[in-house]
Every structure is written in C-alpha cells, then in structure tokens.
Amino acid sequence: xxDHYQVLGVDxxxxxxxxxxxxxxxxxxxxxxxxxxxxxxxxxxxxxxAYEVLSDPDKRSSYDRGGDGYxxxxxxxxxxxxxxxxxxxxxxxxxxxxPRMRQGQDALIRVTIELHDACFGTTREIGVETxxxxxxxxxxxxxxxTSPRTCDICKGRxxxxxxxxxxxxxxxxxxxxxxxxGFGTVIPSACSExxxxxxxxxxxxxxxxxxxxxxxxxxxxxxxxxxxxPGGGPAGDLYVEIIVSDHDQLxxxxxxxxxxxxxxxxxxxLGTSMTIQTLDGEIELEIKPGTQSGQIIPxxxxxxxxxxxxxxxxxxxxxxxxxxTKLSRKQEDLLKEFAKERGDTExxxxxxxxxxxSDSDGxxxxxxxxxxxx
Length: 374
Description:
CATH topology of the domain at 250-373: HSP40/DNAj peptide-binding domain
Radius of gyration: 36 Å
Shape: rod-shaped
CATH class of the domain at 250-373: Mainly Beta
Strand order of the largest sheet: 10-11-15-14
Largest sheet: 4 strands, mixed
Number of strands: 15
Structural class: alpha+beta
Number of helices: 9
C-alpha cells in the first residue's frame, strides 16, 4: 500500500491546512476534467484516498499507528459482523463509512447531421451542460481553511449499531448514521459555491469528431466527459448519439444510396445523358437507347463511406420513363405515324389498368422514398 504522505507530497508532521492545500493543488492538476488520461485518473483516485484518511484526525491517528486509516490493523477479525461472515459465508457489501467521493454518471446528447457529413465525416462543436468539479474547494465541499471532521455520533464508523432482545437472545443491527449520512465525517462549513457537494453545474463546449460512415443510432463515447461525481469524484462518460437527416434526393440503405431519375420517353427510346446529384457533386448519367421504366443503373463508388473496412457503397439510379399526358396535333400525328410504321395496332396497345398506376399521391420520388421506408 502506498504511503499516504508520499502520495500527497507532505511531511508526516504536516498540518491539516498543509494537507488540504497539497490535495487541492494535485486535484486541480489531475482531475479527469483537466486530464482524461486513464493513468492520471488512477493517480487522482490514489491522492483522494490518501486525503480522505489524512484529513480526518482520527483516521490519521489510526494510520500513523500502523492501521489502514479506517480502524483496521491487518488480519484478524474486525468485529461481530466479520465473525459472522467467517462462520456463515458472508461477503456482502463492506462495512464502515462510505466515501464522499463517488463515480459520476454517464450523460447522453443527440446531434443531427446532414447525409453529406455522415458520408465524409465532420467535426462538430456541441454545448454540454453537466456537473463539473468545484474549483473553489477542489471538490472536497469544504469552505477555505476547513476540512471534514469525524462525526460525533458514529465516531467515524458511518453507522449506528443497536442491540435488541428477541426470542433467540440479543440481536445487533446496524443502520447508516443519520447525522453524517453514512460518511463517517461531517462538513462543519460548506463551500459557498457548491454547498458541500464538491461539484457545480456548468455549460461547456466540446469538439466532437464524427467518423465517416455513421448512421442514425450510432453513438460516440467520450470518456470522462460526463457528470462529475459527488465529492468531486471521477466523471462518467458522455455519449453522443447521431441522427442523420433525410436528403432531398438521395435515400440511404446501409452503405448504398438510391436516387429516382425521371427520363423523357424520347430520351429513354433514343438514348441521352442526364445530370444527377450525388454526394460528390453533379455527374452525368448515360441513358442507353431502349432504357425501360423501372430499370436500375448502378454507379460504382458513389454511395456511403463504409464505417468499418473503408471503401464506399454504390449509388443506384432508378429509372422512371415519363409518358407525356398532353400532345399537340402535330405530335399526335407523328406518334400515330410512328405506331403505324412499327405495326402497333390499336388492339395491341390496349392494357388492363392496375391499381396504383396513378402518380397522384406524392409523385414518383415520394413513392420511391416510401418504398425504402416500408
């Protein structure tokens, strides 16, 4: 076990004020809000444990006599509960005062991004409101010049024992001390900034790097950026949940993208080229002669960036051949001449109408997008 005095960098003859100043200085340098390095966080827990013992006169006295600072002196039985554990296989939660410093909770925030940013990645600045360590007291919750003192009621044990009589004899029960709430110590003069909690709420800005290929529901974990725990304890993690907004022309399906392309009847018959929108900008799509409605043209490497493994998915162009609904007299005559030349008789042109052929409910792109959602 590390020497608590060495951990805090003070002499064994150091006063309570010197111990407190040493702890506050180290806490400001090593708190997870300042330095999220896991090794530094372990060091922060070590200095906090040392301060918890040395800041309490009774615990410090016990430690100086060779104990652990919590009333223990190595092996052997520590009391009635330990004897009962030894005989009946106990092993529940440890007895004694609970620490004022505890692990903070995780936090969650949602961020909406465009499809383009989801494909190529981006960095976003987000505002987060969480509990942070109180800089005025360094997290211990005490006013300047003061420190926690041993509870007069439970004498630092954090619990009150009570003996009652029953048909089997005397029974000893324990409950948390109501005066110190089970901490074993009380704060005689609370910090005016945090009211003794060791933390305050504040809004701060963070830069979040969003990797290429994310989709709605993905979460980015930021270690040590969540809520600081009570007593200035280590902060939890912050999770950033991604929401990707809909694109006005492109529909995503995994790593692939789909786009609806309406082609005039003449262009589909004779062949043409059309400008379409992609996440890389506009490109020319070649429509070969005789292209049919419902045909799908793949465009390689123009889909979404793959989150794992690299590379990109495909872009699929879904062709919709537009049939004119109004014709001039000349256009009608030309089409009739064209039909006659092809040998298309009136009888052969008759088809049975099918439910859903109408394009009145939202247009072709609306139906196209709904098809992927369903």
